[in-house]
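Dear H.,

Thanks for agreeing to be a second pair of eyes. The structure we're designing against is below in token form, covering all 135 positions.
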């Protein structure tokens, strides 16, 4: 069995990455392989990295308020690259009223401040299982 591979990325101009780093470490502690792209990535860069790294899930973090534009664009870019089957989850400062819109645009799960890292791990494991991947 291979490890679940997760790409953690910070789209847009948001430079605050502490939460993304905490999640990345929690996923590593749970036995996953994590690729962290760093801050200020474009949706196109994120999608390209996800394909190149052959990841199972993409996790996005946004604190700048641009999540309604950036998160769906990552989903679109993955589709353009023929990788629309890679689930995308998001986290950060995302108002509850934006959750339905993001989910309608293809974001599989949304985590805000105070979310338990164990919940993030479980959602990722469930998403990979749903995809029927051998991990």
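And this is the sequence the design step returned. I haven't edited it by hand at all.
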């Amino acid at each position: 069995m291979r490890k679940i591979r997760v790409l953690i990325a910070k789209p847009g101009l948001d430079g605050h990455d502490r939460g993304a780093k905490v999640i990345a470490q929690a996923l590593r502690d749970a036995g996953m392989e994590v690729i962290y792209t760093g801050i200020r990535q474009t949706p196109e860069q994120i999608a390209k990295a996800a394909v190149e790294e052959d990841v199972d899930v993409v996790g996005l973090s946004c604190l700048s308020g641009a999540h309604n534009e950036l998160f769906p664009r990552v989903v679109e870019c993955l589709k353009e690259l023929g990788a629309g089957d890679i689930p995308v989850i998001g986290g950060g400062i995302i108002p509850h009223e934006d959750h339905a819109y993001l989910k309608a645009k293809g974001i599989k799960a949304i985590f805000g401040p105070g979310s338990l890292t164990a919940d993030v791990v479980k959602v990722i494991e469930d998403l990979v299982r749903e995809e029927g991947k051998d991990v």
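Two observations from my side: Residues 67-80 form the longest helix (14 residues). Helices lie at 18-29, 43-52, 67-80, 99-104, 117-130.

Warmly,
E.
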